[in-house]
Structures are given as C-alpha cells and as structure tokens.
Amino acid sequence: MKTRHYTNAELNLMPDSRLLRLAVKDAKLCEADPNYIMRMNKWHTWHDHLKRCAVCLAGSVMAKSLDTPLQHTVFSCSEEHGWAYRLDGLRTGDFGHAVAAASVEQRKAMGRVYRHISDYLDPNKMRAPWAVYLEAADMLEAVGL
C-alpha cells in the first residue's frame, strides 16, 4: 500500500479526528512491517541490537507519513512537530492542547472521548485498541474536531 507523505506543516493543520485516523493507519502499517516495533514510550528510536525501530503512535506517523529514515532516532520533538504532541495526548484522551479554544459542545465531546479511551487503555501496551481510536475520531469529527 502506497502511503502519502505529508509535511510537518500539513500535519499541524490537520483536525484531531483526521490526525488520529492517519496515526492508526500508520501504526497498523508499522505493526505489519518487521522493521518496526510498537513501543508507546519511544517517538522513533532505532535499536541496533534489535535491528528494528521502536515507534509510538506519533512515531508511526513519522515512519510512514513523514518518511523518517528507519535508522534515524527522534528523541524529542520541536515546535514543528506540534502534531506529535497532540497525538501523544490523544493516545490517552488528553485534550490539553484544544480545551481553551473549544466550544461547550466540543468540551463535552472531549470528555466523552477521554472516558471512552481510558476505559479501554491497556497498561501493558500503553494504548487502547485501534478500533477505539477510530471510534474516538468519529466522535471528534462529529463536533468539528
């Protein structure tokens, strides 16, 4: 499957719902790729001893949609990676990045999404099942996020 490559600027402009869907798509691609291993505590980290790159939800977007080289390690993100911090929060249902500008309806939806994601968080995987994130994206999109 050919993946469209984005720029950081394009990712920063994406609504949370679209960014979350993209991240799930990229995470599934990484899970199916023997060069990657999902580790929610690593952005995009090459492990020489494993000959694999560990990626989190945002790291999977770096790998597949930004086309970050496999052996390139990203320890932390700069301002141009604001989208990555948003995704890191969305992984656990944290909307700190959006609450101030949100309408009352959007804040209520954020609360529902937070509860929805947190109900399914697997402490061993440090994430919810992918389907839960897609449901959360639908909930966000319904209120314009």
Condensed summary:
With 145 residues, the protein is mainly alpha-helical. It has helices spanning 8-13, 16-32, 57-64, 82-90, 104-120, 130-141, and strands at residues 36-38, 44-47, 52-55.
Summarize the structure in words.
The protein has 145 residues and is mainly alpha-helical. 48% of the residues lie in helices and 8% in strands. It contains six helices and three strands, in the order ααβββαααα. It has helices at residues 8-13, 16-32, 57-64, 82-90, 104-120, 130-141, and strands spanning 36-38, 44-47, 52-55. It has a three-stranded mixed sheet with strand order 1-3-2. The two termini are 27 Å apart. The model has no long low-confidence stretch (mean pLDDT 89).
Please give a handful of descriptors for the protein shown.
globular, single chain, mainly alpha, 145 residues, 3-stranded mixed β-sheet
Mean pLDDT: 89
Write out the strand line-up for the largest beta sheet, numbering strands in chain order: 1-3-2
The radius of gyration over CA amounts to 15 Å
How many beta-strand runs? Answer: 3
Percent of residues in β-strands:
5-15%
Please write out the topology:
Layout: H1 8-13, H2 16-32, E1 36-38, E2 44-47, E3 52-55, H3 57-64, H4 82-90, H5 104-120, H6 130-141
Parallel strand pairs: 1-3
Antiparallel strand pairs: 2-3
